[in-house]
Amino acid sequence: QVQLVESGGGLVQAGGSLRLSCAASGSIFSIDNMGWYRQAPGKQREWVAIITNGGSTNYADSVKGRFTISRDNAKNTVYLQMNSLKPEDTAVYYCKADRNSFGIITPYWGQGTQVTVSS
Questions:
Q1: Mean of the pLDDT values across residues 4-33?
Q2: Cβ atoms of residues 118 and 12 within 8 Å
Q3: Cα–Cα distance measured from residue 23 to residue 91, given in angstroms and rounded to the nearest whole number
Q4: pLDDT by residue (tens digit) across 45-74?
Q5: What is the DSSP track for the chain?
Q6: Which of 1, 20, 2 is nearest to 10 (CA)?
């Protein structure tokens, strides 16, 4: 089992910045990819960014150039630095970790943290 706890959300004005953190505990030795997703009111959850165990990253087009995902394996924590925030970035942000056990991938989710960007 993997437990994920997000923090760092809040209210910020457009153009501002926030940094989200996601601390993992439990069977962390088997965590492979980690990522961030978000869900705005009335919309489906969408992928935001991903980072592999080796540090490779990828981003949704809507956040490319503004958001940066990083990972500190020593602290079992993944971060999402969000700059130049826009009102359309308002959503609940969820951390996801993929546990790889003998090739079987099991996803785990955090409880979510609210990000609100005012115009």
A1: 94
A2: yes
A3: 20
A4: 999 999 998 999 999 999 999 999 999 988
A5: -EEEEEE--EEEETT--EEEEEEEEESGGGEEEEEEEEE-TTS--EEEEEE-TT--EEE-TTTTTTEEEEEETTTTEEEEEE-S--GGG-EEEEEEEEEEETTEEEEEE---EEEEEE-
A6: 20
